[in-house]
Amino acid sequence: MIANAQTWLDRPVAMGRRLGIWTSENGRLGSVRVLRGFADAEELARERHRELHHPDPFGAASSACTFESESYAGFPFLPAVEPGVFGKYYEFRTYWLKPGGLTPTIEAWEAAMPERSKRSPLTLNMYALDGAPRITHIWPWNSLDERIAIRAKSYADGIWPPKGGPEQFYEATSTIWIPTVDSPLR
């Protein structure tokens, strides 16, 4: 599936800036996750239209698998994602928000991130533009032991989770992904 995704993204008609490609380490195994940035909502809509109307998007039909697309916008106070080598593992955490929970969540994160980012870098936090209200954030890690230690220390020191943040969600998932060799984020 990685080769199929690469082929799809390498086509001249493909839109968006490729930011990361990962394979699943847990959760739904054999999955590939792609992160792209788009210049604006129109470019995103054109690419989504191409995916939905193509007979074999990402080579999913010919490889007997599925594909899902989700649209997000980055939290407004965070810098844009820049490619680079940041970790061997990437954690994707998704929180499904209670109605009205997005603005308080963004405010909580904005207050907490200056101190939290001293412990480990955040790749991105973003909120969904489609589907159920939710946020997804991406953290790079050199090891899973590093992840556990930093998260435990952040909790113990009271700087994480963001004050008021957990009250806004009702469900959460966390999955670990490994960057592919050609992923701009590694």
UniProtKB/TrEMBL annotation:
<dbReference type="InterPro" id="IPR051557">
    <property type="entry name" value="NipSnap_domain"/>
</dbReference>
<comment type="similarity">
    <text>Belongs to the NipSnap family.</text>
</comment>
<dbReference type="InterPro" id="IPR012577">
    <property type="entry name" value="NIPSNAP"/>
</dbReference>
<protein>
    <submittedName>
        <fullName>NIPSNAP family protein</fullName>
    </submittedName>
</protein>
<feature type="domain" description="NIPSNAP">
    <location>
        <begin position="90"/>
        <end position="184"/>
    </location>
</feature>
<dbReference type="InterPro" id="IPR011008">
    <property type="entry name" value="Dimeric_a/b-barrel"/>
</dbReference>
<dbReference type="Pfam" id="PF07978">
    <property type="entry name" value="NIPSNAP"/>
</dbReference>
